[in-house]
């Protein structure tokens, strides 16, 4: 399950950059900044969720 989640995230992340440039008409530099901010933010929240799961022992 974890493999499919990571695979889906990496596929989505590769399209996110193009989406920012084409649909939202961002230039290369702001699109890169937005992508990096998203990556850092999602990594931070993944760590928070990991700690919550570790404390509770389950996701639900």
Automatic annotation (TrEMBL):
| Domain of life per record | Eukaryota
What are the record keywords, sorted? Membrane, Transmembrane, Transmembrane helix
TM helices/strands, residue ranges: 7-27, 33-53
The answer to keyword Membrane applying to this record is yes
Name the record gives this protein: Uncharacterized protein
């Amino acid at each position: 399950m974890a493999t499919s989640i990571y695979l889906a995230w990496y596929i989505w992340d590769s399209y996110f950059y193009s989406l920012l440039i084409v649909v939202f008409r961002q230039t290369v530099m702001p699109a890169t900044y937005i992508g990096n901010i998203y990556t850092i933010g999602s990594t931070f929240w993944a760590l928070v969720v990991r700690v919550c799961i570790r404390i509770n022992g389950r996701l639900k």
